[in-house]
Amino acid sequence: MPDRLEPIPSPCVCSESWHDTTVVVSCAGAIDMVTAPTLQQVIAAALKKQPTAVIVDLTDTELLASYGMSVLVETHQQLIPEVPLVVVADGPITRRPLELVGLADVLTIRPNLGAAFDELQTTTD
Fold first, then answer.
1. How far apart are the C-alpha atoms of 38 and 27, rounded to whole Å?
2. How far apart are the C-alpha atoms of 6 and 3, rounded to whole Å?
3. Which of 21, 63, 65, 110 could form an SS bridge with 30, CB 3.0 to 4.6 Å?
4. Strands 85-88 and 108-110
């Protein structure tokens, strides 16, 4: 029997916010097989509004499983080149899994929201 119990990640809660024509989809909690469709639905709803850029903010994400990573890849593939996608991920819970499976080579990943907006500024100049 283990000496201590690991905390159970919170359910996934996703929301969208707008900064001019850039949408920020923020997720808190666990993004896994059960909750990834929530992220997918929020992104799909945001894309219908035709943003000029998309940021997926995983700052408050407690677990990023392969299903969540699949949603990020699908989103990247859906977007036209003129609509950049930036993923905010930092540390062992979010950035490390993306690096381990090679998605850091495919997705633009920044450590915080400020750096994500800076990235978008440089890509639009």
1. 9
2. 10
3. 63
4. parallel
CB 17, CB 24: distance < 8 Å:
yes
Q: What angle do CA 92, 28, 11 make, to 5 degrees?
A: 105
pLDDT range class, residue 122, cuts 50, 70, 90: confident
Kindly report the backbone phi and psi dihedral angles of residue 112, in degrees, each rounded to the nearest multiple of 5, phi listed first.
-155, 170
Q: How confident is the model at residue 22 (pLDDT cuts 50, 70, 90)?
A: very high
Instruction: Please report the domains of the chain, with CATH numbers, ordered by start residue.
Output: 29-123 (3.30.750.24)
**Average pLDDT of the segment spanning 45-66:** 97
Q: Where are the alpha helices (DSSP H) in 8-112?
A: 36-47, 66-78, 95-100
Which pTM was predicted? 0.90
Q: Give the integer Cα–Cα distance in Å for 56 and 47.
A: 12
Tally the residues of the chain.
Answer: 125
The dihedral sign for the CA sequence 99, 31, 115, 75:
positive
Angstrom distance (rounded) from CA 105 to CA 57: 18
